[in-house]
């Protein structure tokens, strides 16, 4: 009987030693414990957690991981703390790349590109030691274009073109569905006050509403338009689409002109 208890105790002791060694190696080498249970995480920067008996291994959405003891918590926030953003091509002696622009980001309104093909050289380095290209970091939403400005990263910013046919079709659909007749009849005269500064203008009226598309640097024209249009009308809406200003009156109070961005190309 005593011999049986001794064997059981030895087995238990051996298991404890193995668990301890597994946890120690996971913590020292910042790796996943061999004896573990995977727990998925919805949302946030943590993808999933490998739970061991004494440690937890947090796997972040960027692929990095961190092993901590069970009584500790890790939120992967270090994986988005920027240490620096660098253009390593400047450190390359006699660096040369294909002389054509390389687009690396599109925010819906503007396109961003390097002056030549060098995406793999422009890197974001984080405080946890992880690094990735600016292109990947922007795609994941871990940095912004403003971060590139803060670290003096050079790029070319180009406004996306507006498909005016698409925009007219979109706005036209907004003024043929409501039952308000705005009394707007002098808009063309207002816009023509200073045509030299009006790059583009278009007005579409219907018995049910009106919309205006204008591109101008003349604030007097904009002020006159906004003074003439009825801002108190629940259907009055103003929206800036790159260099264009859009006005709509159709009686619909919660109109979302953000959808007009689908006409950018």
- Which residues sit in consecutive blocks of at least 5 with pLDDT less than 50? 177-185
Summarize the main sheet: 4 strands, antiparallel
Mean pLDDT: 82
Give the percentage of residues in beta strands: 25-35%
> Which series of helices and strands comes N to C?
HEEEEEEEEEHHEHHEEHEE
What does this structure look like?
By secondary structure, the protein is an alpha+beta fold. The protein is built from six helices and 14 strands. The termini are far apart.
Structure, briefly:
The protein is α+β, with helices and mostly antiparallel strands and 265 residues long. The chain has six helices and 14 strands.
Structural features:
265 residues, alpha+beta, four-stranded antiparallel sheet, 24% helix
SSE blueprint:
Blueprint: H1 2-28, E1 37-40, E2 46-51, E3 55-60, E4 65-69, E5 82-87, E6 102-106, E7 110-114, E8 122-126, E9 131-133, H2 134-140, H3 145-150, E10 156-159, H4 164-172, H5 187-191, E11 198-206, E12 209-216, H6 219-228, E13 236-241, E14 244-249
Antiparallel strand pairs: 1-2, 2-3, 3-4, 5-8, 6-7, 7-10, 8-9, 11-12, 12-14, 13-14
């Amino acid at each position: 009987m005593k011999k049986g208890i001794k064997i059981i105790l030895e087995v238990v002791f051996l298991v404890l030693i193995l668990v301890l060694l597994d946890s120690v190696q996971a913590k020292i080498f910042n790796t996943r414990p061999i004896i573990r249970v995977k727990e998925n995480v919805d949302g946030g920067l943590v993808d999933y957690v490998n739970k061991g008996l004494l440690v937890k291994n947090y796997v972040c959405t960027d692929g990095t991981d961190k092993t901590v003891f069970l009584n500790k918590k890790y939120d992967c926030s270090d994986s988005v703390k920027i240490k620096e953003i660098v253009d390593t091509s400047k450190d390359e002696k006699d660096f040369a790349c294909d002389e054509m622009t390389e687009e690396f980001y599109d925010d819906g309104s503007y396109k961003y590109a390097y002056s030549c093909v060098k995406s793999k050289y422009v890197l974001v380095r984080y405080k946890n030691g992880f690094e990735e290209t600016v292109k990947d970091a922007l795609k994941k939403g871990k940095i912004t274009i403003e971060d590139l400005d803060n670290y003096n990263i050079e790029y070319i910013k180009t406004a996306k073109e507006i498909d005016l046919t698409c925009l007219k079709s979109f706005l036209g659909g907004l003024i043929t569905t409501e039952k308000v007749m705005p009394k707007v009849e002098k808009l063309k005269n207002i816009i023509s006050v200073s045509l030299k500064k009006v790059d583009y203008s278009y007005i579409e009226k219907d018995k049910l509403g009106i919309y205006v598309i204008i591109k101008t640097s003349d604030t007097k024209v904009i002020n006159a338009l906004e003074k003439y249009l009825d801002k108190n009308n629940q259907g009055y809406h103003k929206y800036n689409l790159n260099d264009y200003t859009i006005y709509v009156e159709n009686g619909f109070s919660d109109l979302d002109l953000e959808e007009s961005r689908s006409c950018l190309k």
